[in-house]
Write a structure and sequence with these properties.
Chain lengths: 289, 262
């Protein structure tokens, strides 16, 4: 499947012709000079499975664009290539071919990373540090310091619900609390682009709602958000657009409209399952003619 | 903030975190207790009033300081990079506007700072033990400390480079073999040099000049036997030797790590 058509046969919408975006830019203005926050062009990524063994391709000819100010959900089943794509965007994996640009800067360079706030799939932080020390370290790595960094750290910890726990060692933190700290470190320095891999992983329902509210606030400030998630309710409520991948290939992309939002996830879930099933049928046909 | 100042801040923050981790894990306490026990055990001999053992006591004390500082330097450096990768704390670090070399160099500085703190701790304990028995050390003792610091820099750089190729256990074993076996190797090369064929001799020469000769930095015997300080030029040459070797090892590590999938 090429990804040109949605499962119901309508044209899949590209970010460029989304009406929401132009309205968004007219009302809030852009944070960056470049309209395209993230662009992937024919990206191919493969992993080595061991010495003398052939490489396994995990991302295949993937092209996509995320416009500045947009919130894009990056969806796919387990093993679809979402995390590998995100790792390539962050420079943790070197692509076999293709280009990735972040606000026109090559991905993985300090210039690109200075514009990104990143939350890893499994957020783990130094168990011997406190939240304040953790934010101090990450702040120092991005040219922040002094009172401004301290104030920003307190503000972010309060924002994610860790106020009062600033000096508690992280080894005593639950997974959900670590994830909240992960959000705080990703927001440090007010990045132009947030890349969030499984943002609410391990967070309880109250925490999830809280994180959704935080992300809604962040997007209203004009920050671009690119998030992968299996929580389709959250995607339906947060995202302007979703991109579906399966087997490392883009299967479809479309805006999240009221139809998806009103179903609170179930409509999006149906869309997700239908698209993936179609992709699998197509794959089976191609491989067993 | 200019770029050099920013780099210093980045390296300093990474090094500080490595030191803080080790302090909170109480690594240095374990090392200090170990040094007290070992030097204390050696000092028991002096306690029984055996005369003429001053040199022996100094020798044992400095040997303990040498061995423990090398072991700790290897252990500190060997875990820096693999732990970042295995516990996935490397992702938020490299998501910042820093290069992979910055991370390696920051970790190197952290390991070197820890090694220096442990060297100074052992030295204070050893010096205290010697003073207790009324034994002083000459001016060469300070040169001994300075050269130990240089050699620890080489050991930390070598270990960090190895840790990017090998498992942590293999790194520690290999680095200890290279660090502790260094003097044996150079003695063997010196002995064999005249009695082997030209091809083997060339090979030995290449190995001799490629591998760091850590015994060049060991003044412990000279301290024990009360030698005068060595010349400033020699110290300067050894500093250059240490900087060049450390830089080579860190560059090898950086080249290996530059495109490593995480």
């Amino acid at each position: 499947m090429s990804g040109c058509y949605a499962p119901d046969g309508t044209d899949a919408v590209s970010p460029a012709n989304s009406g929401r975006l132009s309205e968004f830019f007219m009302t809030t203005g852009m944070r960056s000079q470049t309209a395209t926050a993230l662009s992937l062009d024919n990206l191919n990524v493969s992993y080595s499975t061991g010495p003398m063994k052939p490489k396994r391709r995990v991302v295949e000819d993937l092209s996509l664009e995320v416009q500045a100010g947009e919130v894009v959900g990056f969806l796919g089943p387990n093993g679809a290539g979402k995390s590998s794509t995100i790792k390539a965007v962050m420079g943790f994996l070197t692509p076999d071919s293709g280009t990735i640009r972040v606000f026109d800067e090559p991905a993985g360079t300090p210039a690109a990373n200075s514009k990104i706030g990143y939350l890893p799939e499994v957020a783990l932080y130094y168990p011997f540090l406190t939240p304040m020390e953790t934010l101090w370290l990450y702040g120092k790595l991005q040219r922040l310091g002094g009172k401004a960094l301290r104030d920003e750290s307190y503000r972010l910890l309060n924002l994610v619900g860790l106020g009062g726990k600033e000096k508690q060692p992280l080894r005593t933190f639950s997974k959900g609390m670590q994830q909240r700290l992960g959000i705080a470190q990703a927001l440090l320095g007010n990045p132009d682009l947030l890349v969030l891999d499984e943002v609410t992983s391990g967070v309880d329902p109250i925490g999830r709602r809280h994180l959704r509210e935080i992300l809604a606030d962040v997007r209203s400030g004009g920050t671009t958000i690119f998030l992968s998630s299996h929580e389709l309710d959250e995607v339906a409520q947060l995202c302007d657009r979703v991109i579906l991948i399966h087997g490392g290939r883009k299967q479809d992309e479309r805006p999240v409209d009221d139809r998806f939002r009103q179903g609170i996830g179930s409509a999006l879930e149906n869309y997700f399952i239908t698209t993936i099933q179609q992709a699998e049928e197509q794959y089976a046909k191609e491989n067993n003619p | 903030m200019n770029i050099f100042l920013f780099k210093l801040t980045v390296w300093g923050a990474l090094a500080y975190t490595a030191v803080l981790e080790s302090i909170r894990r109480k690594d240095l306490w374990v090392a200090a207790i170990l040094a007290v026990v070992m030097i204390g055990a050696a000092s028991v001999i002096g306690h029984f009033g055996v005369r003429g053992l001053e040199m022996f006591l100094k020798d044992v004390t400095l040997t303990v300081v040498n061995i423990l500082s090398v072991i700790l330097a290897v252990l500190f450096a060997a875990r820096q990079m693999p732990e970042e990768i295995s516990r996935r704390t490397i992702y938020p670090l490299l998501a910042r506007p820093v290069t992979r070399f910055d991370l390696i160099f920051g970790k190197f500085l952290g390991a070197l700072t820890l090694s220096t703190i442990s060297l100074l701790t052992f030295t204070v304990i050893g010096w205290g033990a010697l003073l207790y028995f009324g034994l002083g050390v000459g001016a060469i003792f300070w040169q001994y400390l300075l050269l130990r610091f240089f050699s620890l820099a080489i050991i930390c750089a070598l270990t960090i480079a190895l840790s990017l190729f090998l498992t942590p256990q293999a790194t520690a074993t290999m680095a200890l073999l290279l660090a502790i076996g260094s003097s044996t190797f150079s003695t063997a090369v010196t002995m064999l040099h005249g009695s082997v064929g030209s091809a083997v001799r060339k090979g030995l020469e290449v190995a001799y000049f490629t591998l760091p000769q850590l015994d060049l930095f060991d003044l412990s015997k000279k301290v024990s036997y009360g030698w005068k300080p060595i010349s400033g030029t020699t110290v300067l040459l050894l500093l250059i030797y240490a900087v060049v070797h450390s830089a080579i090892f860190l560059m090898v590590g950086a080249i290996r790590f530059r495109r490593q999938a995480l």
